[in-house]
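Holo prediction. Input below; ligand is zinc ion.
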Amino acid sequence: MYDLKITGGTVVDGTGADRFRADIGVKDGRIVEVRRRTGDDAGLEGSENPAVETLDATGRIVAPGFVDIHTHYDGQVSWDPLLEPSSLHGVTTVVGGNCGVGFAPVRPGREQWLIELMEGVEDIPGTALAEGITWQWESFPEYLDAIEKRPLAIDFGTQIAHGAVRGYAMGDRGARNEEATEDDIAAMAGIVQEAIEAGALGFSTSRTEGHRAVDGEPVPGTYAAERELFGLGRAMAAGGRAVFEVAPQGAAGESPAEASMRELDWMTKLAAEIGRPVSFAMVQAEGVPDLWKEQLDRAGKALENGVEVYAQFAARPFGMLFGFPGYHAFTHRPTFRKLKEELSRDELAQRLADPAVRAAILSEDDLPPQPLPLFDAMFALIQHSADRIFVIGDPPDYEPTSEQTVAAIAERRGEDPLATMYDLMLESDASALLMLPFYNYVAGNHDAIYEMMTHPAAVSGLSDGGAHCGLICDASYPTFLLTHWARDRHRGPKFSLEYVVRKQTLDTATLFGLSDRGVLAVGKKADLNIIDMDALTLDLPRMAYDLPAGGRRLIQGAKGYDATVVSGAVTRRHGFDTGARPGRLIRGVR
Ligand SMILES: [Zn+2]
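Structure of the complex:
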């Protein structure tokens, strides 16, 4: 008797192999049968193959659950069992603790400092983190113990973050990015090794000045010397098999190309010395539009020599989303400010449509931006970017042409671009969002991303699930890889469904040593999706106010996932949470 059987589907098994018709039998959370079907073969359909539950996958694709290795659910996991938006997109495993920021270890009394670090770097509302996080830990192993007790719909693995480690071991000196002494490095190394031994899947560090705490201080560790990085890398390796994740200098396009290439030098040297994978964030930035090719080239050469250096690519441009509910061009106009302070969200949305209010806002001068909070000058960037801010359309189009920019639309309307921008944002009761593809869109198309995706040293990452709540919602990459890259792209070549599934199942699971998942085969974990490829569609991103303390976050769902299964339990049907909580903390490689 199976616990679950999935019949009639077409299996895309995660290895990249051609799809095949097969039924799948599940018992005790594992796949125990993959019965190929040819011709009239009844597979597992008959009553001689009983199951507690049967899912009919006729006409559907059956694929492994997606493994998203670059998320920031480190706080959210302590209050939210669902880990949305990722779990809305067929993701059954997330890895957190990226980019050098996390919540353990923490000294009593330093919780708020870690919150402000995360808020600044990842734009997760500090009030939500403060209200939501339970802080039942001091050490990293205690953090894992606390998370392990939480009910979860999907699996959660995490990494120990350099920022937290530095703050813990070095106090204010670490927080202020002072140089670590030998004693400091030894103390930090002990913490890192202990974390890996307790089950952390990696160590992460941020070296980009684009990542800053609320007070403007770059993430602790940003300027760490090589001996500190190597000391911690060796400690990680001593703890077990784990990944060293880096948001390198220049990751936000803030440094000259030479600086970014120097990062490849030490990362390659480190990977070779410790015999562990190093994975770094890679995007195409305006100032250095071809740097990613050199980075991939170098990573590829290392790989050929058996040194595991992988670039994480983003499946689409980093889409900064602007609109009245979030950041926009008019945040510093006095009339907008005043109305926002006085009115509820609904009232504000109504008043913005009032022609007198519109005229006032459009005619006013901006109040000066403040040095803090971060992003307070965003309005100025937006005002000057009408020629690269796009309407998204419905369903959302992430490879829009220049015809779809605010500037082009304004020209067709014979209007000032800011007036056009205002009116476009007024749509859908002033909830409409416009998109600025900040990285990976220098040529105005996805050709660079296509090339990244073909490279053997590139892994799918950077969705930043759970982060950038007011500005970006790219946790939907897993769905986008299927809809855009395997089905809808019309401005250039596509990939096979088999390829894009592999990119976010076998490949990502393998990088993190999770050999128990990522493939639909006997003995593997029963994490899978039943997907209606004809119906699969991304919803429009929208602002929700459902974080603790009413905090805002951009959220984006999808249609077309008939079911998502985690460890043999159906966690979602047609997008809706079933209430099942089979998710677990992942402790260490398997
Ligand atoms: Zn990140």
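The chain has a mean pLDDT of 96. That is the main takeaway for now.
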